[in-house]
Structure formats: structure tokens, C-alpha cells
DNA sequence: ATATATAATTATGAATTCATAATTACGTCA
DNA sequence: TGACGTAATTATGAATTCATAATTATATAT
């Protein structure tokens, strides 16, 4: 018997996990705020049990902070946190580049090239939101090509935490241009299956991104918003 | 007011998390077995609520598998899983080497040298258990010197999963000798703060380890034990 | 008015309860 | 005997309840 077709309703805490993660990543629940447990339970029509199970998982993921007997709080993002997260993300991204070059098919390269060209269009039109979307899709496609689910899980978990910094608003024209140039190199390395080179570029690419985030975090109002 | 001294009792699910993790890593609960929820609740004198919270967290960690409406099962380890885990561990270990070389103090190097010499003694006496213990302590010390809590968390989570393969029994004399040689290089690179070199050695070191594990997994009875 | 002590309220952590799904035991019939 | 269907049992998922910790409101004294 093959169990792959068996009908399984996902449990409530798994469903909630997705919703809560989105609320935090999208910034609906901003860093530093208390997670309104009762309110969320009412909103999603569930009892506290699955909600609290989901919160425990999010705590391990680093998106919320559990204060014993005082409830759950949305994690703040400090510069120190990012200084720790980025090198790890860099290592994972470099690995994803290496593995992608080993496994990637021509079809997958073509798909990425298509995304790349779309991204360039968005860049030319200075459509930051769409640029960002295409950008993210490219990195996801490389991850997909790397074909390593452990890597994917870990990378996504870190990416989610960085994403909610919404650093994009702080992207300078100069930085943007550089990012696009780096993406040309990324595509080229992928096309030629130059794993080591791609790893190196992706690391550099992420380092530049970190600088953007760092600048963003250093601007006064942002520091307030995220760390108070 | 400084909250650093405030008294906080850890919640039950956190306590349980540690106990359960140990039970799985130590092999008391072998891969593929059902997690005896009721039994464990009685054993630790807790209700099902915190126990189930802990299981949800372990599921995210990859140590247990939750089958909807059928309970929790200790995750099996397949060769395919390890083929995914090892490259990721390699990348993380390489990073830990790089970062350690940037930050490590002379005291820390001395401590590692001491551990290294102890390890060599255990090797000469062919005391596998003690050798393994010292070995693990060295890798932990490098991780400590890297001074990156994100990295530490991720590395430990993967290391725990690999550790429970108990591959050591399968270590050949030849392999053991090679491992010791690699450790000489590790110490030397650390002493000289050669980050890139250390990263490279650690990656190689882990790759050899993977080969040992792979051989171990390929021996018939082990495959049965872990995957049936 | 401000600080402190006490009471009322609310939120949290965890046990318990309950509905339902899954499993096992039993009985029937070929 | 063994395949099938049904009943009894057990386990699971989630809601509810309950004891206690934390917070807020109120009262008292300086």
C-alpha cells in the first residue's frame, strides 16, 4: 500500500504557524509588540491550545520571544542579530550556488534567465516592489536547483527574519545598480556552471545587502521602531 | 531596572524538550519507533499539554515526525537525509572555522591545544569513547570561538541528528589515523589564524566523516535498524 | 500629590475534559 | 480457516477548566 495519497487534514497548529509567520514577516505584528494571544484565537476561531503550540514553534524559529508567565513577544531585530545572521546566510547561500551548479538543468537555467530579464525590466522602470519580488524568485529558484531540503529549510528560516527588516526603502541608486551588476554575474556563473565562482558572488551579494540593512537600521526612526 | 537577575522558572515544555532530545539522541528511543506519549507523561509527571508542545518543537527540529491523528514517531535516518545534511553541516563548520580564526584568543587556542593533546592520548590508547568526547569538545570549542549564536544553534541541531547514527563503531584504523592527521592540521590552522585554510580542512574532515557514516549505514543490520 | 500596601482583575501555564479518528477485538459468513 | 463487517477500545486533537503569576486598580498614609 502506498500512503502518499492518504487524506490528511493538517492540524490547527500547523495552519496557525503559517498565518502567524506571515503576520510577523509582513510586519502586521511589528517587532517588540506583544503577541495578542486571545485576540488571535478569536480571529482564527481556535482555542488557546493550538495557538500556544504554534507560538512555541515560532519561538524556536526566532520570530517570537517567550517570556515565562508574561506571554509571547515579537522578536526585535538588532544590528548585533543581523551581524550574526548574515554570515550564516552567506554560507548557506554560497552552498546553494555550489550545489545548484552541480545539479541545475538547462530548463531551470532558462527559467532563471527569464526571471532575470523581468527583474532588469523592473529595475529600468524603478519598480522596487516588483524588482524585489523577481529578485526573491531568483534566489528561490537557485535554492530549488540546489535540491537540498535541509538547506532550503534553514535558508528560508533566516531569510524570513531578514526580510522583515524591510530594508528596501533604504536602497540607494548606486547600491541598486551594483546589485543588478552582481545579478548579471550570478546568471553568467549559473549558465557556465561555475560553482565556486557563483558561491563567491552570492556571498558578496549578500554582504552588500547587509550594508544596506545596516544603514537602514542605523537611521534613527528605524532603530526606534525595531528595538524599543 | 535590570531584569538579568529576575527569577524565571523554565516552562515544562522546555524542560521536556531537553529530556526528549536526549532520549532520541542517545538512542533510548530508536529511529522509527512511536513516541510513547502517555508513558513519557507519566514518567516525567506532566500532563499531555506540555508534552505535546515539546513534540511539536522536536518535529520542526527534525527529530520526530508527526503523523496527523496517529501520533509522533522518532525520525528515521536515511542515506538520502545524510547526503543532504552533510553539505550543510560542512558549510556551517567551514564558517565556524573562518569566524573562529577572526576572533579566537590565545587562551582559547591553548584550551583547544590541551583538548587536542588529550584526544591524541585517547587515540594512542584506542579509547574510542573518550576520543570521541574530546573530538566533540574541540569542535564545540571552535564553535564557541566563532562567537555566533545563530551558527551555534543551527550547527548543534544538525550535529545532534548526525550524532545519533552512532557511526563510530564502524571507524576503521585507517580512517581513524586520517582523522587524527586532519586534527593536527586543524590545530595548526587555528594557531596561525588561517581562516580559509581551516575552513577547507574542516570541510574535508566532515566529508571523511560522512564516508564513515555512509559505510556504517550501508551495513545491513544498521539499515534495518534505522529505516524500518 | 506621591509612594506604598492591598485588593480586584486579567493573563498565563498546565491539567483536565470531550469529540472524533484510528486501532483492536469480536462475531459472522463463505 | 480466513475475509469481511461491526462493536469496543484506545489514542489523538483541541476546547475547556483551574491554579497561580502578573498586572492593574484602589485605598491608605505620609
Most extensive protein-chain contact, per-chain counts: A-B, 32 and 32 residues
| Cα distance spanning the termini of chain A | 56 Å
Q: Class of the largest domain in chain A, according to the CATH hierarchy?
A: Mainly Alpha
Q: What structural class results from the helix and strand content of chain A?
A: mainly alpha
Query: What Rg of chain A, in angstroms, do the CA atoms define?
Result: 19 Å
In the CATH hierarchy, the architecture of the largest domain in chain A is: Up-down Bundle
Low-pLDDT windows of residues of chain A: none
Helix content of chain A: over 70%
- Number of strand elements of chain A: 2
Count helical runs of chain A.
10
Number of domains as seen in the coordinates of chain A? 2
Question: What is the strand and helix layout of this fold?
Answer:
The structure is a homodimer of 228-residue chains.
Chain A: H1 12-25, H2 37-44, H3 48-61, E1 64-67, E2 71-74, H4 79-103, H5 106-124, H6 128-146, H7 149-163, H8 173-191, H9 195-218, H10 220-227
Antiparallel strand pairs in A: 1-2
The structure holds a DNA duplex (30 and 30 nucleotides).
Amino acid at each position: 500500500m502506498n500512503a502518499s495519497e492518504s487524506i490528511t487534514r493538517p492540524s490547527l497548529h500547523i495552519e496557525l504557524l503559517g498565518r502567524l509567520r506571515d503576520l510577523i514577516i509582513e510586519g502586521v505584528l511589528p517587532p517588540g509588540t506583544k503577541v495578542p494571544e486571545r485576540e488571535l484565537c478569536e480571529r482564527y476561531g481556535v482555542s488557546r491550545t493550538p495557538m500556544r503550540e504554534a507560538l512555541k514553534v515560532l519561538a524556536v524559529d526566532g520570530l517570537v520571544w517567550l517570556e515565562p508567565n508574561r506571554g509571547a513577544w515579537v522578536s526585535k531585530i538588532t544590528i548585533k542579530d543581523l551581524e550574526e545572521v548574515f554570515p550564516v546566510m552567506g554560507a548557506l547561500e554560497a552552498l546553494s550556488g555550489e550545489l545548484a551548479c552541480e545539479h541545475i538543468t538547462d530548463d531551470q537555467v532558462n527559467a532563471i534567465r527569464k526571471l532575470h530579464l523581468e527583474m532588469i525590466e523592473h529595475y529600468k522602470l524603478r519598480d522596487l516592489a516588483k524588482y524585489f519580488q523577481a529578485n526573491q524568485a531568483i534566489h528561490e529558484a537557485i535554492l530549488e536547483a540546489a535540491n537540498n531540503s535541509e538547506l532550503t529549510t534553514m535558508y528560508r528560516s533566516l531569510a524570513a527574519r531578514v526580510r522583515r527588516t524591510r530594508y528596501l526603502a533604504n536602497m540607494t541608486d548606486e547600491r541598486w545598480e551594483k546589485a543588478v551588476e552582481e545579478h548579471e554575474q550570478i546568471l553568467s556563473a549559473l549558465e557556465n556552471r561555475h560553482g565556486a565562482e557563483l558561491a563567491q558572488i552570492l556571498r558578496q551579494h549578500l554582504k552588500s545587502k547587509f550594508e544596506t540593512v545596516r544603514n537602514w537600521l542605523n537611521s534613527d526612526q528605524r532603530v526606534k521602531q525595531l528595538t524599543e
